[in-house]
Write a structure and sequence with these properties.
Blueprint lengths: L3 H8 L7 E2 L3 E2 L1 E2 L10 H11 L10 H21 L5 E5 L2 H15 L4 E5 L4 H13 L4 E4 L10 H7 L4 E7 L11 H11 L4 E5 L11 H4 L3 E4 L11 E5 L1 H4 L21 H21 L5 H25 E2 L2 E2 L7 E3 L11 E6 L4 H10 L2 E2 L1 E4 L5 H4 L6 E6 L6 H15 L1
Parallel strand pairs: 3-15, 5-6, 5-7, 7-8, 8-9
Antiparallel strand pairs: 1-2, 4-10, 9-10, 11-12, 13-14, 14-17, 16-17
Helix pairs in contact: 2-10, 3-10, 4-5, 6-7, 10-11, 11-14
InterPro entries: Aminotrans_V_dom, PyrdxlP-dep_Trfase, PyrdxlP-dep_Trfase_major, PyrdxlP-dep_Trfase_small
Keywords: Aminotransferase, Pyridoxal phosphate, Transferase
GO molecular function: transaminase activity
Length: 414
């Protein structure tokens, strides 16, 4: 875990760490619904919102904006470890998943679209729609209800040489489990080497560890508001061969351009703030001067800190009982799941999930109810549950906050 000095420095870089601007002091365990925002992002957003100039003009302000955009594209490439292809800014992560999956379905050779039942509806809905439009079968690899994830072996069992498009969820926002992306991609390439692979990295991004070059994929999408930036835009990387397919573009416009209309330069600039933060943190936990190596070190440190927090939440700490040992509590994905990334979902036989969330709110602890609806029904319905409590952590959360949560949970469940 981070020591107290470094954790204090980390928390000092984020807005509203300890208090809600509407209700006052609180513990924020709703990071999967949208992470806290870097103070630098808030400042950058305000600064660029006031600039009247647009990119693409022949004046000094416009030239400066273009430099900001170019820097952001380079920064996101470094964050993704991506070479070639295109960095794409869009309306949201969901919108970009729809666009990348649409173009893959419309442009790939003959064959099926393969996804999995663990996926968020952003990718699953896009694949279903565009498979139908492009007259393809849409097949779903079943995930394991007990572990809350889908394995490379499960994908391998469903793959055929005519698999044309593959969608993969990197981390589930309901189970909290990360998928073995490189191994799944290798399984795909071994059977269908020309398949276009699109990855939903929206939940995974704030936990670090994105490497599209090592994974050997064709598209990766994130939502910056879930990785310490703000709402209002999404970011994707698309490989050269995905970019070469036909897609919406202005007639006579630049080749390989995905973006439509003038985007907010402030959005690009805030991406650079996020990448700079990862590099700063990596410099605190490693000796490297290389920016990419620092990003990788930050991801490893984030994972270790969050793993320690979730382990304490599940198994208890000091004299506080963990969730796994509270009577009537069942943890989604199991208590000993090593694929967990900063998130614990559970239900209680004693009290409905919405009542637990309300009781935690009353004690100034922010969590969330996941319902068996179009967002989470694919996970909860097979488990026979109408809802669960989602407690989602980030690396700026502390062991003291986990202790407070466990103390309140003991009171709630009696």
């Amino acid at each position: 875990m981070f020591d107290d000095t470094l954790l204090s420095a980390i928390r000092a870089r984020f807005a509203h760490v300890e208090a809600c601007p509407f209700t006052g002091p609180r513990i924020f365990f709703e990071n999967a619904g949208g992470a806290l925002t870097l103070k630098s992002v808030v400042e950058t957003s305000a600064r660029f919102a006031a600039i009247p100039d647009n990119q693409g003009r022949d004046n000094p302000a416009s030239h400066a904006l273009v430099e900001v955009i170019d820097k952001a594209r380079a920064d996101i490439r470094r964050f993704f470890n991506a070479t070639g292809g295109a960095v794409v800014f869009g309306e949201s992560g969901t919108e970009l998943l729809f666009r990348l999956i649409r173009d893959a379905c419309l442009g790939a050779g003959p064959g099926v679209v393969l996804g999995s039942t663990v996926e968020h509806p952003a990718s699953r809905s896009a694949a279903a729609r565009w498979a139908e439009v492009s007259d393809r079968k849409h097949l779903l690899v079943p995930h394991d209800d007990a572990t809350g994830r889908v394995t490379p072996e499960a994908y391998a069992a469903a793959l055929t040489p005519d698999t044309a498009v593959v969608t993969i969820l990197h981390t589930s926002p309901v189970t909290g489990m990360g998928m073995d992306l490189p191994a799944i991609a290798r399984a795909v390439r071994s059977v269908a080497p020309d398949a276009l692979i699109i990855v939903d990295g929206i939940q995974h991004a704030c936990h670090g560890g994105i490497d599209v070059a090592a994974a050997g994929i064709d598209g990766y999408v994130i939502s910056p508001y879930k990785v310490f930036s703000r709402h209002g835009y999404g970011v994707a990387w698309a490989s050269d061969r995905l970019t070469a397919l036909a897609h919406d573009a202005l007639i006579g416009g630049p080749a390989g351009n995905w973006e439509l209309g003038t985007r907010d330069t402030g959005a690009y600039a805030t991406v650079s703030d996020v990448v700079a933060y990862f590099e700063w943190l990596g410099g605190k936990v490693s000796e490297s001067d290389d920016p990419r190596a620092r990003i990788e070190a930050a991801g490893q440190a984030i994972h270790a800190h969050e793993a320690a927090l979730t382990q304490a939440m599940i198994r208890g700490t000091d004299n506080l009982t963990g969730l796994a040992d509270l009577p009537g509590v069942t943890i989604v994905g199991g208590a000993e799941n090593t694929a967990r990334e900063g998130l614990v979902s559970f239900w209680s036989d004693r009290l409905a999930a919405p009542e637990i969330v309300a009781a935690l709110n009353a004690e100034s602890i922010r969590t969330h109810t996941r319902k068996a609806d179009h967002y989470s029904g694919n996970i909860l319905a097979p488990l026979g549950q109408p809802h669960c409590v989602r407690v989602s952590l980030a690396h700026y959360n502390s062991l003291d906050e986990v202790r407070r949560f466990l103390s309140v949970m003991a009171d709630i469940l009696g």
